[in-house]
Design goal:
The protein has one helix at about 70-80, and strands spanning about 10-15, 30-35, 45-50, 55-60, 105. By secondary structure, it is of the alpha+beta class. The protein has a single domain (about 10-105), classed as Ubiquitin Conjugating Enzyme. This is UBC core domain-containing protein.
């Protein structure tokens, strides 16, 4: 949870450790998840804080389905998919140097 004073527990930080035998192996990916007051009836929004290249991540749309656990689990599965497991990744570190501090938006990739 990001804010200890948030009595509605709306803002969270998630972490995904890259799965083995992929270009994501050993990398640590940080995400911000925000659950509105209508969660779980409406899904959380998700933004990567760590730079990543994946077919289900873009700058325009957000994941708008399922629970936080579903989203994090599916993102890790996406890292292992054939189209993402060998995709070249941005260099690790120096996250502060990102031009867009809002992060990358995840488009719906849950099947």
């Amino acid at each position: 949870m990001d804010d200890a004073d948030d009595i509605y527990m709306q803002s969270w930080t998630g972490t995904i450790i890259g799965p083995p035998n992929t270009v994501h192996e050993g990398r640590i990916y940080q995400l911000k998840l925000f659950c509105g007051l209508d969660y779980p009836d409406n899904p959380p929004s998700v933004r990567f804080q760590t730079r990543i290249n994946m077919t289900c991540v873009n700058q325009e749309t957000g994941v708008r389905e399922y629970t936080m656990e579903d989203i994090l689990t599916q993102l890790k599965k996406e890292m292992m998919s054939p189209q993402n497991r060998r995709m070249a990744q941005p260099p690790e570190g120096n996250e502060e140097a990102r031009l867009d501090q809002k992060g990358l938006v995840v488009k719906c990739c849950i099947v």
